[in-house]
Design a protein that fits this description.
Length: 588
């Protein structure tokens, strides 16, 4: 092969080419983002509609059924299922894997626009969105009070005014959701006797309050060469101003809100309770933008928390849950497995070759093939995740197979008296077709997965896995047919140690005896092979099946459902007992 001879005859050019590969791969590795798994897409759309004040039955009959009938006729829909609850409708539409969800979402929105007039006037416009795992919170923070003067109202206000906007401006953050604490609100308590005396209804009071508290465009004014826009500013600034709102005129006398109702400032009715380590607090959930890297966003949030935390007087800001923590631990474990596997592979080589120079030559194939793969991952937009690192871990042993065969054949030619360059070129060319065929037989196993893009979830998971394995093997093939012959030609003659020759001879004698026995006991060999085949088949039927193995993230989530209609304080009391049990029986 001309490539082999060129590599041997031009060592400087070959060395520089691989130096460029190493530089490019190392730079790519430093810029590769970390994530747990490759980006996944699920062929489903969710349609959310609000119908305030309506019960589950009304929501189902007036909203959910209309939406189901509408989207059920869209092209490509497989299944439609829904959930109707008080004031809310949620309809999920699934499509076959491989469906263009952007086009499907457009079709669904068009169908919903046609059906909008069939929905109640008080119902909101249906919102269509795709299911995206990135929409799940990647981090949860807890804000608790450390001073007596900071209560639930102050905690909520601190979270909204001083914390939320700072976290939302962090690059990669999509939204910040708050839960817990209390907000202040204005209470307008109507007096039914006075309403009757002035012949007013609650709807008139509500309309008057809504009309007096707004900011609206007021048209335009032409002044000379300028065109000015006008706005109607009518915002209520305090309780007294709300009480002075005119709701009607009786016998030429205005009737104010304060005449028929009592206006005061109070607290909103709590709909949820948040406790952090047994103390009332505010839960802050962080959602990342689609496509943003989880670990990178987590690192930025940690830096922001470290900066803003000390400025929040009378409070303590805690990181309760960080999705990137498990990713870091998982990837560190896989990286450790790669290093250990590579070290063991080199150790085995030394045991059999007993020559550190031979081990050094073959050992170059392993890191160069891996580093070159990092460049491919960077330019393809991949991440360092369990699948890509798992592919490298699995291929560690295979990456040096071709190099061992080439070096062994070059060594044989050196023993026959040829000089370094001639032995390197001849030895590599003799086995080139064999190692190419051997590598390609492994490569073709992964090709079907590569060409099944957009398929089921398992295909999406193993696509990057297959690409990385294939590219790493092809890189190892190039290294074995170029760099290994070039290095072998420049190094002194690699002689076998005496122990190596004795070890090799003992292995050959043992294998010869085993082979002789097998050829003379063919029935026993066939019977044993058949028994192992049956046992393996039976074991396959008994093995469980799942998309991903169970993982211990070091966290436990518990969910508790109370009977419908249970008051919040009752549920809170039950959960307080659960918290006490956890502290008592799970001290760690």
């Amino acid at each position: 092969m001309n490539l082999i001879r060129t590599a041997v005859q031009r060592p400087i050019g070959t060395t520089m080419a691989f130096a460029v590969v190493i530089l490019l791969g190392t730079t790519s590795l430093l810029n590769l983002p970390l994530d747990l798994l490759p980006e996944l897409s699920f062929p489903s759309l969710s349609i959310s509609t609000d119908y305030p004040g309506a019960g589950p039955e009304e929501v189902e009959n007036l909203v959910t059924r209309v939406i189901e009938e509408t989207v059920g006729t869209a092209v490509g829909v497989e299944d439609v299922f829904s959930t109707s609850s008080e004031g809310s409708s949620r309809v999920t539409v699934t499509f076959p894997f491989g469906t263009d969800l952007d086009a499907a979402a457009a079709d669904v929105r068009v169908a919903l626009e046609r059906a909008r007039r069939r929905l109640p006037e008080a119902a909101s416009t249906p919102i269509v969105f795709k299911f995206d795992p990135s929409q799940q919170p990647i981090m949860q923070l807890g804000l608790i009070a450390t001073a007596a003067e900071v209560g639930p109202v102050e905690l909520r206000q601190i979270a909204e005014d001083q914390l939320q906007f700072r976290l939302e401006r962090v690059p990669g953050v999509a939204a910040i959701t708050l839960a817990g604490g209390l907000r202040r609100r204005v209470l307008v308590e109507m007096d039914p006797v006075r309403l009757q005396a002035f012949t007013l209804s609650e709807r008139e009071i509500l309309s008057a309050l809504a009309g007096s508290n707004l900011v609206a465009p007021g048209g335009q004014v032409l002044e000379g060469t300028r065109r000015l826009g006008l706005r109607v500013l009518s915002r209520d600034l305090d309780v007294g101003q709300i009480g002075r709102t005119v709701v009607a005129v009786r016998d030429g006398v205005p009737v104010y809100v304060a005449d028929v109702a009592r206006v005061s400032v109070g607290l909103e009715d709590p709909t949820s309770v948040v406790r952090v380590n047994g103390q009332p607090g505010v839960l802050i959930q962080v959602q990342k933008q689609s496509g943003a890297n989880t670990v990178a966003v987590s690192n930025r949030i940690h830096r922001e928390v470290a900066d803003v935390g000390p400025t929040l007087a009378g409070t303590d800001l805690l990181v309760l849950n960080d999705g990137a923590r498990f990713i870091r631990r998982a990837l560190a474990s896989v990286r450790q497995a790669i290093l250990i596997g590579g070290g063991l592979a080199v150790g085995v080589l030394f045991v059999f070759l007993r020559d550190w120079r031979a081990v050094l030559v073959i050992g170059t194939a392993l890191p160069i093939s891996v580093i070159a793969t990092f460049a491919l991952m960077f330019f393809f937009g991949y991440t360092l995740n369990l699948m890509t690192l798992g592919a490298l871990a699995m291929g560690i042993g295979m990456l040096i197979d071709a190099a061992i065969v080439v070096l062994e054949n070059i060594h044989r030619h050196r023993e026959e008296g040829q000089d370094g360059p001639a032995a390197a070129a001849a030895g590599a060319q003799e086995v080139a077709s064999a190692i190419v065929a051997s590598t390609l037989t492994t490569v073709v196993v992964f090709l079907p997965v590569i060409f099944l893009r957009g398929g089921v979830i398992t295909t999406q998971l193993f696509f990057q896995f297959s690409v990385v394995v294939v590219f790493a093997l092809l890189c190892s093939l190039v290294v074995a047919t170029t760099l290994i012959p070039m290095l072998s030609a420049r190094l002194p003659h690699l002689t076998r140690a005496r122990g190596t020759a004795e070890q090799s001879g003992a292995m050959q004698r043992s294998y010869r005896r085993l082979l002789t026995w097998a050829l003379s006991h063919r029935r026993a060999v066939f019977a044993a092979s058949g028994a192992f085949f049956i046992l393996a088949t039976a074991s396959l039927l008994l093995i469980g099946r799942e998309t991903l193995p169970a993982a211990d993230e070091g966290e436990i989530f518990a969910s508790l459902t109370m009977p419908a209609g249970t008051r919040l304080e009752v549920t809170d009391g039950v959960l307080a007992r659960f918290e006490a049990l956890v502290r008592e029986h799970v001290p760690e």
